[in-house]
Amino acid sequence: MSIATLLEVVLYAFLICLLVRSVFSWIEPYPRNRIHQVTFNITEPVLRPIRRFIPPFGGIDVSFIVLWVAILLLLGVVRQTA
Fold this sequence. Notes:
Layout: H1 3-27, H2 34-53, H3 63-81
Helix pairs in contact: 1-2, 1-3, 2-3
C-alpha cells in the first residue's frame, strides 16, 4: 500500500467521522452517546483551531464546512500525485 493510498483512506475515514458528528449534533447537541463522543474527540482538535480564525456566522458553525472543503481539496491533491 502506497503512502498516497493510506493518506486517502485516512482522509475518507475523517470525512466519515465529520459526517457522523454532524448528524449526531442535530440529534443530540451534547455528546453523551459513545459513538458521538468518539467522533467528537477525533474531530474537535482539528475544528477548534479553525473556529479561532473563523467564528460562527449567525449561529452557524462554518468551521465544519471549511474543514470539509479543505479535506476534499487535499484528497484531490493526493489523487493527482498518486
